[in-house]
Amino acid sequence: MNGRSHYDVLGVSPSATPEAVREAYRRLAREFHPDRTHGSAVGAERMPSINEAYRVLSDPARRAVYDADRRAEARPRPGPAAPRRMRADADADEGDRDPSFAYGFPDGPARVPWRGLLFASALAIVAIVVLAQFTEPGEPSGPDGILRNGDCVEIMANNDAREIACTGTDDLVVRQFITPDATCSTGYTRYRDRQGMGYACVAEESSGTSTG
CATH for 6-75+114-133? Predict the structure, then answer.
């Protein structure tokens, strides 16, 4: 993490709500996106870490695993044991040795309990999956103006793509969201994001139902 967590990158606390994470991302994207900074080095350097932080923190499962890893890294590790102190007389009998000097050198450096950490991470993932099976799905959120894979869009008169609510019938769905210097995969048409944050790759034929 190079000393900075995803929370630091977005400028939110570890207890931030999904809405706060989304709002922080929108604010930073408007400030540092290369289209807004006219290709400046600052925008090109900041946007990849901003996008990665939002990709992890906006997904509940990824965020839970990420938080578990952060907690594991924050646990204090045991320090090295003090060396064994012996009596000055190396020829002293075992009965004459000071009992307080009975402890010897450690067998080796402190070991990180990787098995325990991996087990805890796996257990967290399983718990999230199980809970998701028994949780009632909430109402789908309305368009927030930030295009992502799976969002439904309409193509405006100036050929820009604008997010709309999915209807489930003949929706145009974003299959890829790319930077201005990238190209869409074969079979997709590239449309400029209305907010200038990139380009949406949309299938040339309607998709039926949306996954977003």
Answer: 1.10.287.110
